[in-house]
Amino acid sequence: MRNLLTGFFLMLLSLQLLVAADLVATKEESVTLEKDGSLQKQEQKEEGSLTLRSDNLKKQIIELNRDLFLLEEDLLHPASTRVAVYVSMDYGSFFRLEGVKLKLDGKLVVSFLYTDKDVQALKRGAIQPLYQGNIASGEHELVAFFTGISTYDRAYKRAVSMKFEKKEGEKSFEVQVVDDIATQQPQFIIKPWDA
Length: 195
Known about the structure:
The chain is α+β, with helices and mostly antiparallel strands. It is built from three helices and eight strands. The strands form two sheets. It has a four-stranded mixed β-sheet. A four-stranded antiparallel β-sheet has the order 3-2-5-6, with no helix packed on it. Strand 2 and strand 3 form a beta hairpin. The chain is elongated, with a radius of gyration of 27 Å. The two termini are 27 Å apart. Residues 28-34 have low confidence and may be disordered.
């Protein structure tokens, strides 16, 4: 896989070098074409042509770079082994979120501390991608640990877990922080997304 990515990187680099060499060669051609008074007009025409060619080559490089990125994502995180976890939040009246730690099969895979801007975005309906990784098929356990401040300005820590079976294809989960008006406490829920 590393050899494939190295090959694509070298291909992209060589394309950029070809663009630079092409630009220099075109510039030299426009200077040596004529020595009389019409040299400036010819240079202006060549510069317009040169700009157009360079713009086309830049577009090709951008497209190749995008394709390389997509290929890299497919190689690093194939859909057959991919797992993704997202965080969402209700109004957050009973809980001020400060951090989340995520364990997968007993191993800490991600830890995230929230800024005020992050929390405000979640309260407005944003869904934060927390983790994306690969796991083998079979039984697994996902545990999310939440830290924050309760309604009464006390430190608040809670954990929620879910056991699941990973089959072929991508598996995604949404970890939700939801206000429970009846108990006036936050609820923490792990909800699987069906593909």
